[in-house]
Amino acid sequence: MSGFNFGELDLTDVAADDGPPKRFLEVGNHDVRIKEAMIKETAARTGRYLEVMFADENDMTIVERYNVQNPNPKAVQIGKSQLKAMLEASNHPDANKPGDADKLSGYQVRINVGLGKENNEGKRWPEVKSYEKSQALVEAVASTDDDEIPF
Fold first, then answer.
1. Is residue 7 part of a domain?
2. Residue 110 domain flag
3. Were both Cys, which of 47, 101, 120, 138 would link to 70 (CB 3.0–4.6 Å)?
4. In whole angstroms, what is the distance from residue 127 CA to residue 78 CA?
């Protein structure tokens, strides 16, 4: 590309880009659905985790990982405990035996997103802190409770 000189570039009449649209859930409570769920191998190839992408009604997302196989038994205990909490809150038919990962898509849950621990660079990223039944699920259960039972 002869004839181009970066030193002479003039951006006077150019508006600065605001960056890509915001796509990630921020700190707070969010009613979400499971958009994707898949089993992945750890980087060290010594275990596996379930990676779940949650999305709200605007398709804003957050990804959570649950250790299900790892040389560190504490990591597995934490991962399984968090997974079970999510399954129970989503009204999964059997939180003890979740079945195939790809069948988790569509389940609804309310998540509490908070900031995680600082990484080596001193940065903190949003992560799922807790689970409860989504408002839609609560309303659906409440509406069936109001139905009259004929005798």
1. no
2. yes
3. 47
4. 15
User: pLDDT tens, 11-21?
Assistant: 899 988 876 66
Residue 80 domain boundaries:
28-114+125-136
Q: Tell me whether residue 55 is in a domain.
A: yes
What is the pTM assigned to this prediction?
A: 0.77
Residue 50 identity: L
Segment holding 86, helix H or strand E: helix 73-89
Can you name the residues that pair with 28 across neighbouring β-strands? 113
**How far does the chain reach from its first CA to its final CA, in angstroms?**
85
Q: ∠ at Cα 42 (36, 46), nearest 5°?
A: 140
Residue 131 makes CB contacts below 8 A (sequence gap 6+) with 85, 86, 88, 89, 90, 109, 110, 111, 112
